[in-house]
Amino acid sequence: MSIKVEDNSGGLKRNHEELETGTKNVSTNNILNKNPPNYKKQIIVPVQAPKIHYVPLKTGLCYDVRMRYHAKIFTSYFEYIDPHPEDPRRIYRIYKILAENGLINDPTLSGVDNIGDLMLKLPIREATMNEILEVHSIEHFKYLEKTSNDNREQLLKETENGDSVYFNNDSFQSAKLSCGGAIEACKAVVEGRVKNAMAVVRPPGHHSEPESAGGFCLFSNVAVATKNILKNYPESVRKVLILDWDIHHGNGTQKAFYNDDNVLYISLHRFELGKYYPGTIQGQYDQTGEGKGEGFNCNITWPIGAVGDAEYMWAFEQVVMPMSREFQPDLVIISSGFDAADGDTIGQCHVSPSCYGHMTHMLKSLARGNLCVVLEGGYNLDAIARSALSVSKILIGEPPDELPDPLKDPKPEVIEMIDKIIRLQSKYWKCFRRRHGNLGCNFKESINDSLISKNFPLQTAIRNFQSKKLFDELNFLTLPIKNFQKNNMSTSTTNSINNKTTSTVISSTSTGTPGNSKEKNDTDDINGNNTTTETNHSSDSIVPPDGSTETKSSSINSKKLENSTTNIKTISPLNENTILCSPAIIRSKTLVVLVHDSPDLWTKRDVSTGVVDLSSTIIIDSTLDFIKWSLDRNYGVIDINIPQTLFEQDNYSSILAAQETLLSFWDNYLKYFPYIEKIVFIGFGDAHAGIVHLLGHRDTRSVVKSVINFLGKKPLKALVPLVDETLSDWYFKNSLVFTDKNHPFWADNENKKPRKKFGRVLRSQQDGIANLIEERFDEATDFILDSFEEWSDEE
Ligand SMILES: [Zn+2]
């Protein structure tokens, strides 16, 4: 049918063009010759055989009943009633559903040669040793070969010793057939005997590494097929895309091509910090290939389980397709596990058959349709049959079915992960640069917050600017951070009093739980220092325990920053501007402690380079609203900035930094403030985790009256009550935790009530921390005043 349509439309277009030129000539003739135009003269286009190669071809199908002989040896009745998931019936059920839906004709399912008009049976054969050795070691080959002659005991022993594999005497033959099937299917496509092909083979292959079997896989079928195609068809196939949508990472396939720039391997899989099988670091999204192959490996890792159509379509549209089009493959092979399918108890995800159809349809647009689908995992027999049917229909030429829920949004964790992947891959793929500028490209290695560094992180610049504003306009001061760096005493020579404070604190902790008298001594120490400096500089109200006069001047501050970054940089990006405080802080009775990441930027990007346009970028520093509000009431203010991790680098985590900073801040400062009666903590973004951590680890309840957290879309953080079980109740009663409208917590269940350990969690009407604060500022400050038992005059 499609042949006819294409031919007609081509014909119509031609006739239309001819008609137009014809009219022109006719009118000229008309003027010159005064003869009536000859409308009867027609251009004849003789009927042609369709000049298309693809549509008339069939879809190849590779299937052989002998691959069902590889099976687990039953050792108990239990194994009989609850068989191994890599069940011989897997391939049979796919073959059967193709027959049931008329895609093939084989009423007895015996594997006849002529299977009808739509699909062509591709004869299967065993892969040869030489073919297999293109990927695997001779030792691995011999090891599997030996299982053909092993006795039952030996087979059971090998099964027990293997990494999620089993053997019987037919395993070796099945594995060679499975591998040979993948090769023959690819060959048929490359040679143009079929338009595309599907290899319904088992055992699967993608976990099998060059030296070893694993994860139900014996030989790495797709890798062996790819190597042999590249070797035997060097003119027509120079580049192969392997798209692996099995829910597990194809560690074997990745390894086979990690150094190879002729093969782009893209895998979509559950990872979850390496907890999901195979659970090796090789499956992480930052594994991008090495040597010549650098940039030709792309792991799209699901940070959470239960993903489905929305996430797969998002990944395809955002990453897979742009990258694959840029790669321009000559052949596409799908490592087609169906264990992400809805209903698969191992994958526990929800990909619908029509989503598999859509993905196949997209991949069919590459490499002029040279597409070969090779079965990998998939353990729910109904689900794999339905999914394989959907894929086969697309191969034959049907359009994909509508997705069951096309409006569903991908999960926010996935959107974030995809963004990370794009940023990382933008180093290698031009198609991503428009979105991310050069981030993740040239600069990654050399970002450095030394003031004389060319690639200077904006968050450091912003903190320096924030600090200057607070110093110059509100007379804020710094509290030294060096106290908090473990084993990092006396790196600075700028303030001796600072060192003195540190040593006091160290001695108090080294004596274990400080008794009353000890604690009093420490307090006296700080007060003593304090009084001294105060008398020295009577014009400046009260200086912090740091005590040095230098802290008042921002130029000297910058100098100190330069000195200190060289010391601190290797530990974390915290610096001397990390903790700032309002003047006379030590005398405060009431204290507002703000703990935040960098402020929001509202910005515009240059659409062609992805670079941020600074002329239309503003900083939304919402913490300033709270600072002014507090100072108006004569509260002391402490402002703690915990920088975000730069490019998820190295060993710094902003959450851990927030936790450590807050604990040290409490142990070294806050608990020694002599006049303190009331404290409120206000947390923003990830940094709020430091507050929750502190509240669980120290009993602060005598002075901390309330806690406000503006989470945005950051994960809820549970209070772990190490001090006393009643802390969770206390936290719930005395906190407000504001989340984005579209925070992931609410996605699954609109009416879900968070547990008390998360505090009193409230859902805002908007997204973005700046918007949240604007919406909830009055509610938050009223709550604080209530907790302080202070009200303004208007109320
Ligand atoms: Zn799998």
From TrEMBL:
Biological processes per GO annotation: negative regulation of transcription by RNA polymerase II; pericentric heterochromatin formation; positive regulation of transcription by RNA polymerase II; rDNA heterochromatin formation; silent mating-type cassette heterochromatin formation; siRNA-independent facultative heterochromatin formation; subtelomeric heterochromatin formation
GO MF terms, alphabetically ordered: chromatin binding; histone H3K14 deacetylase activity, hydrolytic mechanism; identical protein binding
Keyword presence, Repressor: yes
Catalytic activity field: N(6)-acetyl-L-lysyl-[histone] + H2O = L-lysyl-[histone] + acetate
Superkingdom in the source lineage: Eukaryota
Ranges of Low complexity composition bias in the record: 487-513, 526-536
All copies of domain Arb2-like, residue ranges: 570-791
Keywords, comma-separated and alphabetical: Chromatin regulator, Hydrolase, Nucleus, Repressor, Transcription, Transcription regulation
Polar residues biased stretches: 22-33, 548-560
Region (Disordered): 1-33, 487-560
Chain ranges of the Histone deacetylase domain: 84-393
Signal sequence range: none
Protein localization: Nucleus
Keyword check for rRNA-binding: no
Annotated EC: 3.5.1.98
Cellular component terms per the entry's GO annotation: euchromatin; HDA1 complex; heterochromatin island; mating-type region heterochromatin; nucleolus; pericentric heterochromatin; rDNA heterochromatin; SHREC complex
Principal location listed in the UniProt entry: nucleus
Family, as annotated: Belongs to the histone deacetylase family. HD type 2 subfamily.
Protein name, per record: Histone deacetylase
